[in-house]
Amino acid sequence: MIEPYLGGAVLSLGYPSFGRMDGKIEDLIAAKGGTFSCVDIFRHQGFEILCDLNQPAHFPAEYDLVIDPGTLEHCFNIGQAMINAASAVKVGGRIFHGSPLTMLNHGFYNLSPTLFQHFYEANGFVVDLLEGHGDAGKGAKVPIRLHWRFAGEVNSAFYCMARRIEKVMFRYPIQKKYIQARKEGAND
Asked: How far does the chain reach from its first CA to its final CA, in angstroms?
């Protein structure tokens, strides 16, 4: 999913260990002429730049690809963590999330695809991919239904790829079903 975008400036939020890739990601990126940076709350590999994503990170919007390999659900202040991640993406760049859908007690949160769709739509991005899979992302496809509940087997994960089309001031989204209710005059 991310292989075509590894040739530019890449920032990872935590060190990614994708089972489907051969070799270390930093070597794959270097082989494609790209650069790799990694931030984390502590040094797993020894080269991470220390960063608490719960706090404003003030990343420059210079990355062609930002990778969230399953880090945001471990940040208590997830809204700030998402803004930090998205702010690092340059216009024309992409952000990739691999997130738990039904992995109870894995992190602070299990995330809904609606969160990503609405956050990115409200903040100058278009969502190019929103796809779920069982067995921690390795299994059968889970049909994603935005705005409606759906079932996923235990340990399901989903992937989101969003592309930044304009730089705007970040804001917290309102779930679309409530925007529509407000427009229709509900609870006036």
From this structure: 45
- The two three-digit tokens of residue 132, written as one number: 């779920």
pLDDT along the chain (188 residues), means of 10: 93 83 84 96 91 96 97 96 98 95 85 92 96 79 72 82 97 84 63
Helical residues (DSSP H) of the chain, grouped into ranges: 25-31, 78-87, 113-121, 176-183
The answer to whether 51 and 40 are in contact (CB under 8 A) is yes
Answer positive or negative: Cα dihedral of 118, 55, 63, 46. negative
Angstrom distance (rounded) from CA 13 to CA 49 = 10
Is residue 170 in some structural domain? Answer: yes
Domain count, the chain: 1
Helix (H) or strand (E) run with residue 98 in it: strand 89-100
CA-to-CA dists, residue 96 to 13, 149, 166, 183, angstroms: 10, 23, 17, 32
CATH number for the domain spanning 78: value is 3.40.50.150
pTM of the predicted protein model: 0.90
Would you say residue 17 lies in a domain? yes
Query: Closest Cα to residue 89, out of 68, 63, 67, 69?
Result: 63
Q: Report the 10 Å Cβ neighbour count for 125.
A: 24
Vertex 69: Cα angle to 9 and 75 (nearest 5): 110
